[in-house]
Specification:
- With 362 residues, the protein is of the alpha/beta class.
- Helix content is 35%, strand content 29%.
- The strands form four sheets. A seven-stranded mixed β-sheet has the order 3-2-1-4-5-6-17, with helices on both faces.
- The radius of gyration is 20 Å and the shape is globular.
Length: 362
C-alpha cells in the first residue's frame, strides 16, 4: 500500500468510534476518512468534528467505498460480525473492538471468512499497549520468569460504568466485556499454551435489581495445558462515586525463576476538586475525587490523546501502511479469549467445571 493512500472507514460513531476517528484524523498518511452510524445525526456530528469526507447512516456505504483501504469496527458487540465479514470479503483489513463477538458461532463465521480471503483481522485489546504490560511480556519472552506456574488478576470498576455497558448491550456482561481484557492478557503471557479447564463462581444483586441478569462479581480458576493455574476475577459494582474513572487492576505472575507484580489501582494519582470531575464514559456523571490515569482507554491532554487506545490505533495504522510489527490480538487469540469467558459464565451458572474446547452451540 502506498504511504499516501490510507483510507480509513470507522463503522460506529459511539464513544470508542469517536475516539478512533479523532485519532485517525491526525495520522500523517491519511487521505480519506469516512464514518458511519445507524444514527445519521451522530455520524454527521462526528464527521464534522473530524473532517471526514463521508458521514453516513449506512455501514455498508463506508465499507464499500473505493477510497477506503482499512476498516475499524466500533459498533456494539452484538453487531460486529456483519461489518467485519463484509470488509473481509472486500479484502480490506479490519481492526475490531474487543470482544470479537458475543458468541462462538459468530466468531467462527468471522474466522472462516478471514481464512478464506486471507484478509488481516486484528482485535482491539488495547490494554496490551500499556507500557507496563509490554514490559511484562518482554520479561516473559526473555525468560526471566522461567516457566510460568501460576498467576492472579482482578479488575474492579463502578456500578455506574457497568450499567452504561449493559444499557448499550445487555449481554455484554462484566465477564464477556471487561474480564475479557485480562483473560487476553493471561493468554498472551502464556502464549503457546492453551486453557483446558475453567471453574468459576459468581454472585449478583445490584445489576439484577436494575433488571439485568449479569452477576456483580465473578471469580474463576483457569488451568492451562502446561499445568499453569490462573485465578482471574471481576467486581464491577463498586459504589457509583468511587474515584476510579475506569478499571482498577492488579496482576501477579509467578514463575520458576521470577515474579511479576503489576499494580494498576492508580491510587498514587488522586485529584480532589469542589468543581467536580466529568466522567468520560458516563454522561452527566461527576465525582469530586478521582484517580487520574484510571480512564481505561486513555485521556485527552495538551491537545492530544494519551494512553493505550491511542497507541493501539496508531500502531494499527502503521501496521497497515508499511507492515510494521504489532502486538494486536489476532482473530485466533480473540476467539480463544471469548471461549474462556463464555466458559466462565457457564461454570458460574452451573457450579460445574467446564472443559475446553467447548462444543457447538455457544
Amino acid at each position: 500500500m502506498n504511504k499516501r493512500s490510507l483510507g480509513v472507514g470507522v463503522v460506529g460513531s459511539g464513544r470508542i468510534g469517536t475516539l478512533r476517528a479523532n485519532l485517525v484524523s491526525h495520522h500523517p498518511s491519511l487521505e480519506f476518512l469516512a464514518v458511519s452510524d445507524i444514527d445519521q445525526d451522530r455520524a454527521n456530528e462526528l464527521g464534522e468534528q473530524v473532517g471526514a469526507q463521508l458521514a453516513t447512516g449506512s455501514n455498508e456505504e463506508v465499507i464499500e467505498h473505493p477510497d477506503i483501504t482499512t476498516v475499524i469496527v466500533s459498533t456494539p458487540e452484538h453487531d460486529h460480525a456483519d461489518s467485519i465479514i463484509h470488509a473481509l470479503e472486500l479484502g480490506k483489513p479490519v481492526l475490531v473492538e474487543k470482544p470479537i463477538s458475543l458468541t462462538l458461532e459468530d466468531a467462527d463465521r468471522i474466522l472462516t471468512v478471514a481464512e478464506r480471503t486471507g484478509t488481516e483481522l486484528r482485535v482491539g485489546y488495547a490494554q496490551r499497549f500499556k507500557r507496563r504490560y509490554q514490559l511484562a511480556k518482554e520479561q516473559i519472552v526473555q525468560g526471566r520468569l522461567g516457566e510460568i506456574l501460576a498467576g492472579t488478576g482482578r479488575t474492579c470498576n463502578t456500578r455506574a460504568q457497568g450499567l452504561q455497558i449493559l444499557k448499550r448491550s445487555p449481554h455484554a456482561t462484566p465477564v464477556l466485556d471487561v474480564l475479557t481484557y485480562w483473560v487476553d492478557m493471561t493468554c498472551w503471557f502464556l502464549e503457546g499454551h492453551r486453557p483446558v479447564e475453567v471453574v468459576a463462581r459468581g454472585n449478583g444483586k445490584i445489576y439484577k435489581e436494575h433488571g439485568y441478569s449479569a452477576n456483580d462479581v465473578t471469580w474463576s480458576i483457569v488451568t492451562f495445558d502446561n499445568g499453569a493455574v490462573m485465578n482471574l476475577g471481576v467486581f464491577y459494582a463498586l459504589p457509583a462515586k468511587y474515584p476510579a474513572l475506569g478499571q482498577s487492576v492488579r496482576m501477579e505472575i509467578y514463575g520458576t525463576d521470577g515474579v511479576l507484580m503489576l499494580d494498576e489501582d492508580h491510587k498514587d494519582e488522586m485529584l480532589y476538586t469542589d468543581k467536580g470531575i466529568p466522567h468520560t464514559y458516563i454522561p452527566d456523571h461527576h465525582i469530586n475525587t478521582a484517580f487520574l490515569s484510571s480512564t481505561t482507554p486513555g485521556d485527552w491532554a495538551a491537545g492530544d490523546y494519551w494512553g493505550p487506545l491511542g497507541d493501539e490505533t496508531r500502531s494499527w495504522l502503521d501496521h497497515v501502511i508499511n507492515g510494521r510489527p504489532t502486538t494486536h490480538a489476532t482473530a485466533d487469540d480473540a476467539r480463544q479469549t471469548l471461549e474462556v469467558t463464555i466458559a466462565m459464565e457457564m461454570s458460574s451458572q452451573t457450579g460445574e467445571a467446564v472443559q475446553l474446547p467447548l462444543g457447538e452451540g455457544h
